[in-house]
Amino acid sequence: MSEALLDIDGVAVAYGKVRAVRGVSLRVHAGEIVTVIGANGAGKSTLLNATMGALPIAEGCVRFAGRDLARLGVEERVGLGLCLVPERRELFSTMTVEDNLVLGGFRAPRAVARDTIAEVYDRFPRLKERRDQLAGTMSGGERQMLAMGRALMSRPKLLMLDEPSLGLAPRIVADIFRIVADLRATGVAVLLVEQNARAALAAADHGHVMELGETVASGPAAALAADDRIVESYLGFH
Amino acid sequence: MDGTILLFLLQDGITNGAIYALLGLALVLVFAVTRVIFIPQGEFVAFGALTYALFEAGRLPGTVWLLLAFAGLAFLFDLVEAIRDRALAARLPRVVFFDLAVPGLLAGAAVFVAGRGFGPAAHFAATLALVGPLGPLVYRVAFRPIAGASVLTLLITAVGVHLALVGLGLVFFGAEGLRAPAMSDLTLAVGPLLVTGQSLWVYAVTIVAVAALWLFFERSLWGKALRATAVNRLGARLVGIRTGFAGSLAFGLAAIVGALSGVLVAPMTTIYYDTGFLIGLKGFVAAIIAGLASWPLTAAAAFAVGVVEAFASFFASDLKEIVVFMLILPVLMWRSLKQVHVEEED
Fold first, then answer.
1. Which residues of chain B are within 8 Å of residue A79 when distances are taken between CB atoms?
2. Which of A71, A234, B197, B248 is most enclosed, with most CB atoms within 10 A?
């Protein structure tokens, strides 16, 4: 297989003396959906935030498109084509839907941003209907769509989604996963962190299971979904 | 008191209120983007007024050296940071451009303008060109290195910067007070009122400045990026907005607004190196009444402060400042009763 788009190699992340993530390695290739599943507090979100540069890495290294990201801030990583939709969405709540999207394309040339916003409206017709509404007044599902739309405005090569289904109704969760699958068709790679392991493994090509900051199982998503041990630990409750 | 005096006091209050409104808006802007309660805003007013008055007097203002000193300091800061990050080669061109070339050119332009009698418009522009860049430079040296600190730490730093700037003001401008000639000799009789050309200038510049700021924040991508940084700092970083640059931009706008206010008050009152503090504090009162959050409320409160000040100086001129600053007390009490106290989350 060709060189990985994202290469997380032996990464540890610490909050003070507590290591929330220890020795985690994973790769995401172009056009691939990779998921990290695990219980609350397993270190999944920490891993994504550190990959984005919002948290410092204590050990190991993260390469994106062959480039070591160690010295780059969040803003530069966005410029390289890395984009994170965080668990709390972090929208600009007092600004309109359209302004949120326009700012998503902050680093893109104006003409590109104009074309991209049309594409985002095609993908999320609901956002187009609500373009003049304030982001803070929207429902949970609409906010998640706006967060994804804002992320797509930067034309990422890799989209990292942190718990996109959290707190959403099942029908909307299905919508979100359908959109994730559609994205792969356009060549965007996705790194998906989920507690909803069944849906995540169904959508992904590859899966990793995290427990207490370490990877405890990795493999093709279909194989993980068929593994009794994993089914018992992570899929039983859904 | 008869109706004429009432009208005079109102007019006086509104003219001063317009200036407090500009300062209050700048304070709200800086706080929203950087969480800094910017006490030294008044120093930009004093520096703007003194710079303009010195240009008008045909002299070269000390602001040139102040600007160059801050530029040199910022250059050293950026240089050390670039060496520490081992990114000297990549950053050097930008650092040299922003910290040396731009301030150098502006200082050069000011030296060229000084003493040639180009008139108020050129002196006005030169004043903005000298004082405006001080905003981002002060931010670079004093606030960006501690951008993640608590609001209280930033406030204490702001007080320190205020004291330092007042001291520098004494060094670069001297202890003597200055007053600039009026921008226009026009006086209009409107009923019993005499409206001076200077107060018309104040109204016009305030309206234009507020409209320009509104357009900037509502229409331009950079303005929206500043608002976004104010609403959600992490969200702003995630879309690729450099929050450091947003901070520089906010401080730059604040310095320009401060210098603008300074030029407007320079012909109305004698300005000393330390006069700015009191003027800035009145803008601060307005901003606090509006909870450091709402622009329209800040503007309205600023006019109220101006009018109260005018009436206080008529009825009890000794207690003028006390009356104005007491305005803040009922508002703070009302706010503290109305709101549940929330610990700052960082």
1. 240
2. A234
Cβ <8 Å between A103 and B238: no
Contact B240 A90 (CB under 8 A): no
| Residue ranges per structural domain of chain A | 33-55+74-235
Contact predicate A182/A115, CB 8 Å? no
pLDDT in tens, chain B (346 residues): 678 888 889 999 999 999 999 999 999 999 989 999 999 999 999 999 999 999 999 999 999 999 999 999 999 999 999 998 887 888 899 899 999 999 999 999 999 998 888 889 999 999 999 999 999 999 999 999 998 889 999 999 999 999 999 999 999 999 999 998 888 778 888 877 888 888 899 999 999 999 999 999 999 999 999 999 988 999 999 999 998 899 999 999 999 999 999 999 999 999 999 999 999 999 999 999 988 888 889 999 999 999 999 999 999 888 888 998 988 888 888 888 887 655 544 4
Which residue from A155, A159, A156, A4 is spatially nearest to A66, judged by alpha carbons? A4
Would you say B46 and B19 are in contact if contact means Cβ atoms under 8 Å apart? no
d(CA B189, nearest CA chain A) in Å: 45
Number of Cβ within a 10 Å radius of residue B328: 17
Q: How far is CA A148 from the centre of its chain?
A: 9
Q: Residue A46 CA to chain centroid, in angstroms?
A: 12
B224 chain-A contacts, CB cut-off 8 A: 95, 99, 102-103
Å between B220 CA and nearest CA of chain A: 11
| Helix A97-104 × helix B221-231 angle, to 10° | 100
Find which of B91, B238, B249, B294 to mutate to test the A interface (most A CBs within 10 Å of its CB). B238
| Backbone torsions φ then ψ of B175, nearest 5 degrees | -85, -10
| Residue appearing with tokens 């959403």 | A168
DSSP class per residue in A49-87: HHHHTSS--SEEEEEETTEE-TT--HHHHHHHTEEEE-T
The pair of three-digit structure tokens given for residue B145, joined into one six-digit string:
């290195």
Return the half-sphere exposure (C-beta side, CA atoms, 13 A cut-off) of residue A214: 2
pLDDT given for residue B24 in this prediction = 95
Q: Are strands A18-28 and A6-15 parallel, antiparallel or unpaired?
A: antiparallel
Convert B132-158 to b/e letters by CB count within 10 Å (16 or more is b): bbbbbbbbbbbbbeeeebeeeebbebb
Does the CB of A94 have a partner CB in chain B at under 8 Å? yes
A4 touches chain B (CB under 8 A): no
Determine the distance in angstroms separating the CA of A231 from the nearest CA of chain B, rounded to an integer.
34
CA A179 to each of CA A122, A176, A190, B158: distance values in angstroms, whole numbers, following the listed order: 12, 5, 11, 48
Would an 8 Å CB–CB cutoff place A107 in contact with chain B? yes
Question: Which CATH homologous superfamily contains domain A33-55+74-235?
Answer: P-loop containing nucleotide triphosphate hydrolases (3.40.50.300)
Residue type, B162: H
